[in-house]
Every structure is written in C-alpha cells, then in structure tokens.
Batch of 4 targets.
Target 1
Amino acid sequence: MKKHRISIYDTTLRDGAQGEGVSFSAMGKLMLAKRLDAFGADYIEGGFPGSNPKDMEFFSAIKKENLSHSRIVAFGSTRRARTKVKADPYVRSLLDAGTPTVAVFGKTWKLHVRDVLRTSVKENLAMISDTVGYLKDKGKEVFFDAEHYFDGYKDDPEFALKVLETVEAAGADCIILCDTNGGSLPEEVNEFTMAAAGRVETPLGIHAHNDGGLAVANTLSAVRAGVVQVQGTMNGYGERCGNANLCTVIPALKLKMGHPCIHARKLARLRDLSLFVDDMINLRPDSRAPYVGRSAFAHKGGPHVNAVKKNPITFEHIQPEKVGNKRNTLISELSGGSSVLLKAVELGASGATSKEEAREILNNLKALEHKGYAFEAADASFRILIQKVLKKHKSFFDLDGFRVIVEKRGKDQPCISEATLKLRVKGDIEQTVAEGDGPVNALDSALRKALVRFYPEISKVQLTDFRVRILDPEDATAATTRVLIESSDGDDRWGTVGVSENIIEASWEALVDSVEYKLFKEEERKGSGED
C-alpha cells in the first residue's frame, strides 16, 4: 500500500524558543532557517510578529534570502473578542510579516472560551471564521491550530468538531489538531483524529507537546489516523517539557513507517542539524537522544560488540549512517577483546590488530578503571593509552613542575587564581604565569601559553566542558576525584580523563591528554599529507 507524503512543519524558531534556556538572536534565527531549508523542511514557523521586534526583524531579513524549498510561516491568534478583524493589530501584523503562509490559533475547548477569552461560544466561532476568511481573502495559505483540540474533544466532542467545521467553511488550507497540554495518550489521539477526519475534508495536521513523554508517539499515532502534516521542533525544544522531537519523528516516518517526507540524502544530515541547533543556543547535546545522540548506536558489553561486528542488525534498529550518526564502541572493564580491537580501529590505531596487543590494552584498561578512570567519554585518553601500550607514544613536552594559587583579598572581592608552570619543550625550558576564572582555567591558560610558540596549532584548542566526580564520598575531602574534560578545536571534539585525590592533579592529567591528543592528531594529519 502506497504511503501518503507527510509535510514537515518546523516550529523551533517560535515554539522551540519558548523553552527554558532557549533563545535565538536575530542572526541565529536566520542561520537556522537557512539550514532547515537546506535540510528540506516544508514549512518554517518564524515567530509571532505581533509580539516582539526581533521576530519582525527576522521576517524582514528572510525575504532577502533565496530559499530553495521551505515556506516561511508567520504565527498569530484569531482576532480578539468584540473587535473587527480589520482593526485587530495582531491580525494586521500577520499581513505585515509578508509571509506566503500564516498560522492562527483558536480555542476548541469550552473551558478556554469561558475562563480565558471570557466570551460566548458564538463569538468564539465568529472570531475564528472572521480571521481565517479575512486572511484567505488576502491571498494567504492559512493553517489553523485547533488549540487544546484533544482536551476540548474529551470535554465536549460536538463543540470541538463544530470548531473544525467552522474553520473548514472559512477556507483554511490545513487544520492542525493540537495536544497543547501534552497529556493525551496515543490511543486517544488516534481516536479523536479519526473523528475529526470523519467530520471535515480539510487536510489535518498534528501538533503535540511532550508533558506526558508521549509527543513523538502521539504524532505517529495521528499519522496512522491520516494526518498529512506533522509539527515539531529540532531536539524537542519547547515550552515546559517541549514539543514533538522532529529528530525522532522524521526518521520514524521515513525509515519505520515508509512515509515520504525528507529525502534520504538530506536525512543523512540529521545529526549535524541537531548538533547545529544545540550549538546555536549553547546547550549541551543529549547524548542519549534517539537516532542522533552520541549513545544512540553505542555498544559496551563484550557479547553485544562481538555480535555487532558480525552483523550490525543484531543490536542496531537502523544503519546509523542513514541519520548521519555512527557506531560508537564503549570501552570499560566490561569490554572484551573484540571491543578493544573495534575501538582501536575506530580511533585510527590500525596497528592494534593482534589478539595479544588487544589483551595487553584490555589489562591496562581494567587496571586503570580499578583506580577510578573511565574511558566511555574519554576517547582521546583511550587513544593515548593505546599508543603507550604499543610503545608508540611520544611526549611533546615534560613537566618540571607547577604551582596554583587561589587568593581572596576580602569578603566582597572575587577569588583570583594564578598558575605558574615550568616545562621542557624541544630542549628549551619554558616558564609561564597565567590567571584564570578558577585554578583549572588558570592552569589550562598557562599550559597553552607555554606551548603555543612551539606548537601554534594549540591556540585553536578550547576547553568546552569540565566535569568532576567524587568516587568515594565517604572519604570526604580526601576522596579520589575523577575529572572529565571535553575540548574542541572548532572542527572536532574529544574527551580526556584524569584521576587523583587532588582535583588539580586530576585536572592536569586530563589537560595534558587533551593537548597531546591534539598534537598527535596534527602530526598524524601532516604525515598523511592532508595539509
């Protein structure tokens, strides 16, 4: 049976921006819209033009861009109660945005008509009819968001369906059924969507929130009931618990349900797009996100890794490359020889192919993990461990010593951190002093300051994340500390680990691994002629 095409409607720039900690600059909104267009989103909701100047700035700027696929949508409400539609400033702002498509929301739950709008059922229907009809007369493609449709249907099915009939009579191009409170169950969404499809002929869409953790399931349930448009946000960002996550919905539609939506070639950019959105709003990517997360195709247990090596479908529901991801072999004391060999190859240590070498690496790994090291998020440290076991490691510098001072000169004064560092680099002695926001930042600055003359490429390295774990809290301040550091040079990210009873020493270990990994990769790149 041929599956109908599903239209993808992205509302990251509007509904996603309502999420806690999510904010886009005007330029950021423009950059994301262009990425969504290149990805193949059919509609991009740009914002609420009547609510703030930034959204109007976006609508003005986006007109100058030559989008190849997406249609930009301005979002707003129906006219206010007891106000003529032509005189309503919010309706006017939808026209001022100059978009080919507009989306307006209206009430389908009597509770909201009574307690929020504080008007009559008759006036509510008139507000909807007047607004949709007016915007259609202005030549717009009009989508109607049936706000609280599922709650409204549970409360009074006939009223909710009457709203949809009113929208259809006014000429809307698509009616989007909204689970605005995010509390519906998939079987309810399926049943109530089919009820809507039985009452109106206008195409239907679905807009689900995730308050019950079911936004994706509800979206797919609505698709099974016949909707032709799905709305959601990248990475599921949105108000409260967020919206339906398009990074999960799209591959499910395409790869699991067989519905045409995003071209396979563009679907392979999904993980990159997901990471781009996280970077844009400065939020850490969810490593456990389905399809696009770093752990989505991660394998740790020895038997699992061995099985995947023989046939990936034993423990992978799709090929990671279809969504732009890759297999990730996790290394720990639970690992077997197969895991070590696969991880070594994955990290580029092609020489580590014998069983004897794998066994020696594994023995070193288990000894270090017994001391508190963890390499699951520290691939760079594990690569250096491999090099050391294979007697291929090269030290780019040697430490003579360091001193870190933290000083506070009064109760109202900030702490001052200063690090003094002495290294031997290529036969020279380098001694540097640097200040930082904290002792680790000061030490990091001093290290890179000492090395940059010898290794200019180190200037690109930035410490992007710093995490501390107390391994034996019962020992209080004498407890062993594990430090995980994430670094980036703008192109790649890598993780390193250090362990000590002294947090500064643990941090130093992780910092040294981070820097040496970068220098090692640079030498490797130059040796392969990739300049």
Target 2
Amino acid sequence: MDLKQYEQWKFGFADILRSARALDTKDEALRSECVSLQARLAEDKFNLLVVGRFSRGKSTLMNAILGGEHLPTGIVPLTSVITTVRYGTRKQAVLNFNNSGLRREVPLSELPEYVTQKGNPGNTKNLSYAEIELPVEMLRRGFFFVDTPGLGSPIVENTLTTERFLPEADAFVLVTSFESPLTDDEDRILRRIKNTNKKIYVVVNKQDTVSVEERAEAVQFVQDRLTTYSFREVPPIFSVSARQALDAKISKKAESLPETGLPAFEEELHRFLTEERAQAFLLNMHERTLALLSRRMGTESESHNIETLKALTKRLRELREDIFGTSAKGMEYTPEVGGEENILEFPLLQVQKSTGCSICGIILKAGFKFLSHYQYDLTIDPEVQRDHAERGGFCPLHTWQYETIASPQGVCEAYPTVTHRIAKELQRAASVSADTAAMHQAIAKLFPTRTSCPMCEQRAASERQAVEELAKEIREWKETDEKHLPVSCLYHLSMVVEALGDEVPARKLVRSQASLLERTAEDLQRYAVKFEGLRRHLTSAEERQAAMLALILLAGHRSVTSPWVVESIL
C-alpha cells in the first residue's frame, strides 16, 4: 500500500456513502449518519508530534524531512507556541491568536518574529499556535507535523504547552542527541507518552559529533534505558545527523543521504502510515459503513432501495477484499531529495492562473487586442463594414465577445451593412428556392465559419504561433533548467505534440500532463469528501480551484475552444 492507493480507497468509501445518502434525501437520520462518516474521511490526517529538549535539533530534523529551511532553528528555546506544518499551495505562515477567531497570513520569513524567544519573548503577542503551509507532496498525502516547544527550557510554560498537546498525536518522535541522551525531562515525557499507547520513535541526533564507537555505545545506552519503561513495544531507535541530511537534500546530493541515517527513519515513518495506521483506519471505516448499510436494510420497506443497498454492500465487500487482500509488504520507498515528490517526468508544469492553458491565454490576449481595433474600424470605415458584411459577420461566439466591448452606439454604426445583407439574402432565398430543402441550404450558407469569421481567422494565426513557440521552448528545455513549462489544455496538447516532431520530449510532455490530470482528479475527490462531510474549511486552495482547472484542462478556455464546438453543433 502507498499513500496514493490509501487515498483512493478512502474515496471508494466516500462513493458508497454518497450513494447511500441519496437513497432518501429527506431522511435526516440517514443524512446525519452518512455525514458523520464522511467527516471522518475528510478529517483523516497523520499527526506526528515531535518532542524533546530545546536545542536537540527537532526543527532541523523536520526541515530535513521536508527538504528545506522552513522552521526556525537556533540554540535559544522557542516560546510557548505549537507550530504545525501542513500542506498548502504556497509557502506561508498562518498565525492563530488566543481568544480570537482571527487568523493572520504572513510570509514564512516573518515566522521567527512570532515563535522564537527573540521575536516574541514570553509569548507577549498572545499567539495560540502557528501553522506553516508548504507545497510538499508528503504533506498533501496526509502527514501533519507538529513542532513543540522544547522541554526543560527556562520558560516553564513551554513544557506545559507540549504536554497539553500529547492527546492530539497519532505518533511521537522523541528527539534526543549524542551529547547527553535521555535526560530527566525526556524521561518524564517518555512516561507520559507511554500512557497514551501511541507509536513512538526515538531519534538520537547529531551523530556527526561523535565517533562510530561512541555512537554505538550511546545507542546501546538508550536501548537499555528504554527497556526499563515496560513499553508494550520497545520504541525503535534511529541514529541521524539532521543537519547533514538537510544539507544533502538542499544541495540535491542523494548519494550522501544514506550515511546521515535519515532515509531509514523516513522509510519507517512511511511504513507506519501506510501499513499500521492506514489499515486500522480503513478497517474502522469498513465496519462502520457496513453497520450503516445493514441497519438501513433491516428497516427499509421499498424493494428498489433494498436492491440498491444490496448492491452497495457488494461494492463494500469488494472494496474490503481489494484493501486487505493487497499486501503492503515489499513496497519500496525512496526518500526525496529536495523535499518534493517528483511526480512529473518533465519539469513541474505551470498552470496559468487566469486561463489554465497557456496557449488559450495567448489567444485570448491577442484576440482582445485585435477586437479592440477591429470594432473601432467597424464604426468608421465603410470598406471594413462591407468586408464584414460579405463574411457574414462574426461567428456566434465572437459576436458576443464583440458585444462585450462595443457600445450600443457602436453596434448601431457597425452592423447596418451586415444586417441589410442578410435580409437581402433571406429575401432571395424565399423568392428563388424551389423547396424547403433548397431554402435551408441557402440559409445555411449565410452562417459564418472559422474561415470567414475575421476573429476566427486571427485566432488561428495566433494559435499556430503560440504552438510553435511552446514546442520550441520544450525542445530547448534542459534537465538543469529550473523554470516550469506552461500547461496546455487537451486540444492544444495534441497540437504541441504534433509540432514537436520528436518522440522523446513529446512522450515526457504527455506523461507530465497525465500526472497533472491525475493530481487534479485527486483534488476533485478531496474537495467532494470535505464538502459532503461539512469540512469545507479544511480544503486547500488547489482543491477549491480543481473544478474549474479540470474543465479547462479537458476542454480548454470557454472563450477559445467554443467556436469549434458551435460549428460542429451547427
């Protein structure tokens, strides 16, 4: 099992609950039960609580896992502030204040002003907790990191804040170091964690400061100490150098990562999330959904609803077999260099904010410029008016685009010629045509086409140029380039692939576009689950924009691709 498959199984439960809820939209009890389960699906996340004394390297360890200098680090303790790390479309910090529902977004660079002892001594700014949002793929898949104030610091409230947050965790990472492993403060927090019966990992940091022999001796000391706590399962111990791992990821030196010890720890976190915790969550969802369907079947009187419930129960049984009949053993996990999953074979594609497809955007911009001049010429130049009339005017779509920038006076000055011409042609069709079929053909010839509409003609020219320029940009792109290539809608993607003429970049481009569409499909599913579970506040910006993006990627911008659709309908 991997995180992507885990999400797809959750979406499977969501589909079944959606169908069950539709059995009777007026049944409040059914709606409430379904919403409760849908809310559990929407809220599912993996809270990894990182604890330890101040200056042990907790924040550095999290930065290493996330692949960048995101959390502030230093030798002075943090204030009494919990800092969480979750997925976000862009890098930013969100501040939540005590006794206030207000949230303030600030650049990540300003975070130290609120969560460090230097910037916010004694938490005089009354901060409740800070959230860091990062576009890191593992966070999008359900990881939710929690960085806690250091234990044993001179600020007593720091330790109290950390201990109050313990019940929120799904698993714990205790960070100690080779300098002085397992101090009294860490001993106390271990005993508190033991009572939660949650998974715990012990990371001994700063292995680069001791010799191999000293390292082995310190790890054995920690191992012996842990056996005295009578844990149900002795916590696994990982020797790491968070600083060296972070440097390796930032510099993208994958070959030096294994010696830092971090990949082994990341692999274990991934295993726990995708095996132990994920399977427990899915099993619970199966049992509760089955109970819902069974109760409903026992009280249902309408035969067609009973048949629907039987079909849903069969789907649920098949989903369970798919989940628990698939072994999670043997799945390979490759730690990331740079902090983001490389889901695209090509460089990450850049979605244009206003139009989605870059080529659609170029066409719209060029079209607006052309139309702005043309609509003015139509009002003052008789020759332009005659030519426009001979063409039959604009196509239907471009007629209404023209209307948006032309005033009623402008239309009255520009359109008498074309309107007179169409009127004369209709009179001729009525007088000359021998039957209705001939009359129909005569009228059909009056429709503007993409070869007669001046706007369509301009559109085709700007489209050809944009396609050639993008194809050239793709051919010249190199692996060392940091720039992102623009996204194309499906219609323009086919044109770019044809223009490329080279199978290798074309194949990579198509695979990249496929990955983007798959990612967008997942965002659609996440939004639906959170919306149905009444958890819209948990949606990310990407999930909120997914509906429009999906339609644009599949059909292109409505103001660009519609002429072809209109013509095919006519």
Target 3
Amino acid sequence: MKKVILNIGGMSCSACSSRLEKHLNKQKGIKSASVNLVLAQALIEYDNSISISDIEKYINEVGFESLGEYREELDENVVYKREKTNLIVFGVLVLIVLYISMSHMLNLPSIPFLSMMDNPINYTVVLFIFAILFLILGFDILKKGIKNLFYKSPNMDTLVTLGVLSSFIYSLYNMILVLNGNYSYVENLYFESCCVIIFFIKFGRFIDGKSRERTKDAIKELVQITPKTALVNIDNEEKEVTIDEVNKGDILVVRPGMSVAVDGEIVEGSSHFDDAFITGESIPSKKGVGDKIVAGSINIDGYVLYKAERIGRDSTISEVVKLVVEASNTKAPIARLADIISGYFVPSIMIIAFITFICYLLLGFEFNEAISSFVTVLVAACPCALGLATPLAIVVSEGVCAKRGILVKSSEILENASKTDIVVFDKTGTLTYGNLKISKIYNYSDYSDKEILKIVCSIEDKSDHPIALAFKSYAKDEKIKLSYVKKFENISGIGIKGNIFSKEYFIGNSKFIKNNKISNSHVDDEKNLTSLGNSILYVVEDNNIIGLIGVSDIIRDESREVISSLKNQGIKVIMLTGDNEKTAKMIATEVGIDDVRANVLPKDKNKVIKDLSKDNLVMMIGDGINDAPSLASASIGVSVGSGTDIAANSASVILMNDNLKNVNSLISISKKTLRNIKQNLFWAFFYNVCMIPIAIGLLKPFGISMNPMFAGIAMTISSLTVVFNSLRLKR
C-alpha cells in the first residue's frame, strides 16, 4: 500500500469534504481516504492498481481540484494578497451599494440621479450592474453550488447559490417591469442583498482562512527551522552550498550559533546542541564523536564536523512534519459524527426554506416577503461552524503536541487518550533511564574479568537492547578492541548468542540456563545481585557458566510524579517487564506501582496487552523497537527513546524527548481537545437553533426579525466563534 497527501481546491464546508471523502472511498484501488477541511488536504492510501493521476481524476469528477502533492513549503502570500485586494475593492463597492439602496431609509442625503423615487430607472440599472459585478466575484461559489446540486450532494455553497440566484432572478423580473414603466416595482428589488450576501460570504471565508492558517503555525515553524544553506568541508576548505546540493556522505561543518543543515553523525569535535524545536526539552545536550545530530538543532559552543546521513524528505524534521500533517488529516470518531449530521443538515435546511416560502404565500404575504424569508433561511443556516468544529480543534492540538515533542500519529488517538483505563509501563529505558552500568562481575573461569567483559562486549555490540548500551559504553571508555563474532542470534526475551574463535557463547537471563538444563551452582550470587536491584546476565561458554554480571539502572526522576498523577486520575498502572521479579518489584515499589508482572517474554507481553484490552482502553509505554508487538497491540502505544527513527516506529505516539511527564500532557491535551470540540459543536448547533426560527419569521410578533444581509453577517460571526474557541487550545 502507498500513501499520498494531496492539496485540494474548492472545498468550503464539511459537506464538501464529506462528499469528496465518500466518493474517494468508493473507488477501486483506494483502501482509505480521509479529507481534512481545515488543511484542505486528502490523505489517501491506495494500491498499485491505480496511480496518483487516477486519484486526481476521481477528485475532479465531483467538482473539486487536485492542487498536487503536499509540499513542506507553505507560502500562500500571493493568493492572500490577491484576495485581500479584491475584498478592499469590493468592500468599497458594497458600501456604495448600501448607500444607494438605503440612504432614503436612514434620512441621509441621496444621490439625485440615483434616487429610487426620482430616477427609478437609473437606480434599478446601477444596482443591476453592481449585482453583476458581485456575481462575478462570487462565481466560484455559484458554480460549486450548482454543481453540488446536480451531484445530489448539496452543501453550504448550494444554500448560498439558491439564495442569491433566487434574489437576483426575482429582482431581474421586477427590473423588467420597472423599465416598462411600472415604477412601483422598484421597491421589490433585492440586488443589494445579492451584493451584500456574496461580499460577506467572501469576507467571512477570507477571515476564516487566515484564522485557520494560525492553527497550522506549529507545522510552519517546523518547516522553517532547517537552514537553506550548509557548509561543506572539501579538502579542509569550507564551501557554502544550498541544502539541495548536499549529498549523503558529505562532511559538513557547523560552527557555534549555526543550525545543523541535515541529519548526521559527528566525526570530529563536540558541542552542546539545542534540540528544543523537536524534543520540547529546553536544556541543551552535550554531543561528541559518534553521536547523532538532527537538522535544525542549534550548535551552542563548539566547532563540529559531521557526516550527512539523512537529507531532504528522509530527515527527522521532515518525518515529524509528515506525521503531524497525516495525523491532522485522519478523522476522530467525534468528527465522523459531525460529518454525518452535516450530510443530513443541508438537505433539511433546503426543505425548511421551501416550506417557509410556500407557507408565506399560503398565509397571504406578498411574494417579495416570501422570497426574502426563503433567502434568509438558506443563508443563516449555512453549516460552516459545524464543519469547522472538530478539524480546527484537532489541528491546533496536533500542533501543541508537536511543540512539546509529542508526535501523535492519528487524531483518533488524540481523542481516545482521555478515555485511558490502564497504563502499562515497560521497565528498562522507560521507567528507568536505560543508561545501564556494569555494577559487579562474578568470575567462575580461568579468564580474567577483562577477558570475560571483552567477550560480552563483542557480542553485545551487535544488539540493540538497552542492556547492550552498558557494554558498548564500557568498551568505548576502556578502548577495548572487539573480537569478530560469527552466527550472532537474538533469542527474544532470553538473551543473545554468538561464536568467537570457534566457541559458542550465550549472554542472558536464567531462563536459558533452565531451558538448556545447564548445571547452575551460582543461584546465591544471582539472588545477591537481584536483591540490590541489578539485572543479571549469565555468561555461558559451550554450555558452561563462566561468569555472572550485574547491570544496574537509574530510575527516571519524573517516574514517581507521573505514576502518582495517573493513579490520582483513577487510571490503573501496571509494570510489565522481562526482568526478574525481585528487581522488578524493587523498582515498582520505588515508583509507586502495585501491579508488577515480571519475567514476561515479548510474545507474552503482547498476549497480556491483548487480554487487558478486551474490556479496557490500554496505553502501553515502552521502547519503540524491543516492545514493538505490544505497542502495536495496545489501544494507544507510546514509544520512549526512538525519536530519531520515527519512520520505523510501530507506536501510535512517540515521545521525542523521553520525558514521561508528556504521558500526562498527552492525556491532559486529549481531555481539553475533546472538551473544546464539544463546545464548538454546541455553539454551532446553538447558533442554528437560534437563527433558523428568526430567519423563518417566527419571532416577528416579538419585534425580532432578520433579512438576507444580516443573515450573511451572522453566519460569518458563528464561524469565527468556533475558530477563536479552537485557538484557545494553543494556550
């Protein structure tokens, strides 16, 4: 399966995005499609039987336009300036129209040759010309409105189109009567309503669009972080090149105060680097030869040479941006509910408007009053606010999470995190730092301690397990020359094997000893190590135990606080680890976990998670690689410590800065997002509940009424209410 994000042109409301989404999901070769109104994008998963050009044809079939694949460049200044200029010009024109048509009502001095009473023909023709100009301004709305009606998928544009064209055609009919000498019909013209409705719809969308752009600020900031140029070291000379000219393997220079141009590995020098933009961690980290650095990081105080490894779209920052955009384009369950409601809402409003029109005529009202109420209902009830309620809040929250170093892969996760029943923690590298140190060695052989450690370091060097880091660090510090290892094998949940100089070695826990029935007279030494909180590693040579090594870890500073907070929220906390029971319980007691499940193999971890998930929403927190199966099986899998390998991560949430406090932040943001969405939906429905009766005219006996012009203004205000409420999440 392939994935693509396409920019979509022509969407104006939730009915648009819903219709396009339904159409795409019906097409052969498309596995899933999710359309985002706020970002104006479609996230499409498809197979090899179709191409992107086929997908673009499907998009065009329903009246929308594919603007090509999503790119990280988000500069929309040209379009913005053109729209702004148009609105300024037409804003002046709409004021002139209002003055011509309403000056006599407000006792303002009228323009003599355009006076409704003295020069009705001039008055009528000038308003007609203005109406034509505004119809040209709103041609895109009218075109889409008619198109959607023919596709039997009416949307907001359809409501506006019906309202405007009804007013225009009725006014055109009266204009002909006026031109034929029936001057009394000059009072039945609604050309000014056409002008004002179109202007306020356009103005509302312009303001709405700029407000929506603010929701994408976090994504824009990520895009703009990486520098446009880099310093390449060629034969000890520095040459400035553009990012596009950098090739994998090039040696680049980053001086103090400069930003890292591409992802790479330091080959010379050391410095402190500020990674706050991607990890949310404000304290710079010290990095030296062999350490990885990420594009966009700021070099604080050292002169560093590094080798380019991941460039362009393969870089960490590009992966982060891609994930944030993809997550924003997925649908939360509550958003699907809003889409379903919108699908029924527009046809219902059309029916209500027609019933209103007929009832007015049957009750003896004049035709012009009936048509005015018909238009007012259509315009006032446009479901803009309803369509924006969910996606706006989701996009803002995704940006907030990204700024804090929390990468959420789907908006469904962002909604569901607030409903978490159980949080399951792995131990090593999750509740603890995973910076293991060799604390003690028992030597049962003729080898020296250093020789045993050389054997272990040589084999552990091929492993990615957190315990292997202790030996890699030791080998680096002691400058041990590693032996060549053949037939390396990882035995999941038990240990590792390898051959050195024709001898077979095993390094791992006591399960291997028991499974292979190896004689073990060192149980007391094992108990002594575990009682001190050590993880233990047996060293076996050709089925003979030659050593026992204790490796200790340090509990994360924030572990106790995080677990206490989770328990205070009524969330059950479990530790699930492959380590021995004594060590696990000792760590659990220190951090405040009561439910401990130790000696659990990775495949059994997966089974435990599946069993817990039958009746609960389970959040699993662990290492992104070693705990991949259980992270994938959990309702929400949270990966700690895999920030630079985003693409390969199987978790649904990635904590880029390894700070467990972000687990609480995720749950908190989720709760606030869900609350914000419910508020948005309430205000959207509340607006329609209030506006529709007024538009119909049910409150006229109480002196409360509305005309099409005020309906357009009220619709704009309702959308902005939802926009500004969503933006509160940024705080």
Target 4
Amino acid sequence: MIRVIQPLLESAMQHHQAGRLQEAEALYRQVLDAEPEHAQAMQLLGWAVFQSGRAQEALEVIRRAIAIDQNRAESHYSLGAILAELKRHAEAAQAYQRALQQRPDFPEAAYNLAAVLHAMGDSQGAIAAYEQTLRLRPSWAEAHNNLANILQQQGRLDEAEAAFRQAVALQPHFAQAWYNLGNALRQRGRRSQAIDAFHQALAAQPSYAEAYNNLGNTLNDDGQLGQATVAYRQALALRPVYPEVYRNLAKVLFNQDRVEDAISLCRQGLRLCPDEPELHATLSILLLQRGEYPEAWREYEWRVKATEPLFPNPRFSQTMWDGSDLAGRRILLHPEGGYGDALHFVRYCPVVARRGGRVRLLCQPDLLRLFESVGGVEQVAAVNQPWPEFDVHCPLLSVPLRVGTTLQSIPAEVPYLHPQPKERQQWQSRLAALGRRLNVGLVWSGDPGHDTNINRAVPIAELAALGQVPSVRLFSLQKGPPGQQRLQLPQGMEVTDWTAQLHDWADTAALTDNLDVIVTVDTAMAHLAGALAKPVWVLLPRIGEWRWLSRRTDSPWYPTMRLFRQSTRGDWTGPIRQIVQALQEWVQQRG
C-alpha cells in the first residue's frame, strides 16, 4: 500500500506547489481513499481547499487531520491560518501557539501568531512573537518591517527606525519598508531623509501612489510647495479616485495663494467621490477664505461626518435645530474647537434668542465667568458640569448656516463680551499707578501643540522694536510655555508680566479692557480683544486662516481690528515695521 500511496502523495504535492490546486485536491483524496487516517494527506488536502477559497470546508478537513494526529505542527498551523481568515483571531492564536509547542523552530507559525495578536490589540504579544520569528529566521525582511510598524505605533521610534533599516538592508527593493521608513523619519522631523526614503520606495515600485502622497506631505512640511504639487499630481495620475490627495493638493495650492485652483481641484475630486466628508470640509474652508459664505456654511456641515472630524461633537438624543422659528423652545448651543472659536461664535447667542430661542450655552470651564456676560443667554454651564435641560441643540459653528450669514450680514456689533466691573476697576487703578503711557498688550504665540503654530508664532525678540517706541509700555498677555520667552528678552526690552494673576478668561478680559491696544498673533486673544471692542492688531502669516479672508487689512467680524500680513512666507519684518509705525502715529496723535 505504501508503494501506491507515496507516488500519489508526491504527485499531489508537485501539483500543489505548482498552483494546480484542483489536480492536487483530487490526488490527495485518492490517497485518503486508500488510507483514511493519513494525517499529512488530510492536512495538505485541507490546505489546498483553503487556498481554493473554501475556508469553512477547509476548517472541517483540518480538524479531521488534527484528530488523526494531534502532534502534527503543520496541521495546527493550517488551522491557525484558516481561523485567522475567518477573523476568529483568539482561536487562531491558540492554534499557532500549539504549532509552536509541537515545533519550536517554526518561524512561519511565530510570524502568523504575531499578526493575529496584533489584530487582537495585543501589541506586546505581537512584538514578542516577531522577535521570536527573527531569532529563528534573522533574514526575514517582512518580519523586521512588521515589527517596526508596531514599535512606531508605540512611540519607540529609535527601535522602529532600526528595524525598518534592517528590512531594507536585507531586501533593498522592499518598497513598503522604504515607505514605512519614510513615514517614521517624517514623524521624527528628519524631512530630507524621509524624502530620500520615499524616493527609494518609488524606485522599487513606480506605481506606489501612497508613496507619492506622503512624499508630497513631506515636501509640503519642508516648504517645497512646488515639488509637493508635482508629487501629489503623480499620485492622482496613478489613482484618480484618491480623496486624501485631492485634499492635500488643495491645501498646498491654497498655501501658494492659488485659492481658485484649490477650489476647482476640490470640485473635481467631489465629482469622482461625491460623498467624501473630508473633501467637502476642505472645500468649505476654501470657500470661507473667499468669503463665499452661503455655499461655504453648507459645505462646512460635512465636518461632523468626517472620519476624523474637525471638531468632534457630543451625541444628543434631541434633534439639531434646523434654523426655523424656535417659538420659545430651549436650545443648547455648544462649543467646538478651542477657545478662539468659542470667543468668535458666541456672538450668535443674541441672534438665536431673537429667533425665539431660550438659549442655554455650554462652554469650556475657563470661559464660564466671561460668558455669563453674553446677551440673550438664560443659562451658562461648563461642559464638565451638569448640563441644563433643552429641547433642541446646535453647535455654535453651525449657527451661521441656520441664520443665513453672508459677508454683509455678519453680526459684528461689539462689544459682545464684558469684564466683571469690579475686576476691571482693580486693573484700572493698578495701571493708573504706573503713570500715563500707551499700554500695549502682547501675545506672540498660540498653542505650541497646534499644527499651524509654527507658521503663526513670532519669537518675542522680534517684537523688541515695539518697546522702543517712546511712551509705549508693553504687557505680556501670553499664557502657557511660550510665556517663558520673556525671561530671555533682548537688551533694552521690558515687558510687564501679570499673567500669573490671570486665572481664567474673565480675569484676562478685565486686564485687556484696560490696555490701549493689543498686538497679537492669530490666537484666541485676537478674538477676545475684538469681542471687547478693543483696538487689536493681528500679525498674520503669508496665508492666513479662513476667517481673516484674503488680502484685507480689516475684519468684517471685528470693527476694531487691523490685520498686518506677511508679504513673504516666514518673514515678520514687514508687518512688525508697520505696527511700529502705527504705534508711533498713535503716540503722536495722543500727545
């Protein structure tokens, strides 16, 4: 019998290795007809059935193979692969572990065990399994690459980079590993090396659209906007339906002051993928920049449907207000984003009240006392407090759509925020004791963790010329870590700092309201000063945020605001010189 079975088995295996699965399966069945308890033939039959796309049938065959011989590592390995395909990861992990118990020198079992453990969220287990794989087979480039991906996700960037480099050293044309190395290097801020890695990925795989996209992202980070544009267009040539690239390219065109081109590109992308929320949201920002508010506000509603929303909103059982007459219903207006957006759009509370709404307002805790001064509001609550009862709700940034805001109908009456009278009087007395001067408040940075802060922050040393204007006294309104820059001021620059006594935005408003003019970068302070109707001069980068529109020196949102824009990207010399001149003129006019 063995003389008959062995040639059949060998022939079946030859067909199997050559990919002729139907012929292999038939021969395996002949072997099993002759010897039903042949464990190897049963296992190989199960594997052939699995490779033919019949996972459920293969599962039953492999279980019969294990019943014949529970100590056969290959059968447990095959069982693990089938269970993993069926997304039964915990059972798959057990099968791979059993295979390794039977055969500890089984690198494929360790490799696949790592994959299912990672799918289960067990990163540490996956790392250990990949390390076991590499002890058994150090030259396995894919294992180095996969290990590196998990290490990168855990923030172990040195180890991840080393593992990616090992993968490409072992397999120089491993496009995915080069791509992953590029992403890791970009994450570490090593842009030139990341760009080289992406080029290596593209040399190995010229049709790698994702590599062109992330090459474009890195070139954009590096300020090479023209080259980024070329990379993004290459990605779209390879994959015309690629919403992420349309968004990225639109942003690069916007940063080149090509707003019309960016809008056209978004519309082109939306014709191909009309239900892509992020692309609609990108279009909305571009339209807002142009002041095309009716369409912009409609497109802006897509932000809440995005995979990664611009501003995550809480879920409510109550319906969202549709803009109709509220007829005395209680409406909850709730914030989105940071302090700046809340300070900017809280102006809409009186507008909603005039639509018949009994307004309940949510806000960040630091804004609570200040927002108690907003007109048209029956009740204010911090988001970390019990919320008031309400009938309908609306995010603050959705109100402009509901009330039909156009560029001409912006509710720009100021002040719409007011400091506490007692606190305002205290600061007034304190400033009066210093003697008469032009008191200028300074803010030179936003949140250092914000993606765009690098473009909008101004080192305080570059503002030294403001303090050299006769009769000007500078005050810091800068909170957070950037405030420490005042400890290393250039010689001759003096800045009074009372920020340690500003515990919330009501405190800040009371001091701000007593200063003569506020000079600030694009951060929440610009909105506070504008809402208080204080003269506020805002330093803007070459391409500013949407709410400041394009090429304007004033703001339709804030009548007391002046905008000072860079003429060259990254160069604050011009706008600072203009502010110095404006201060000099103010001092002269006031004598």
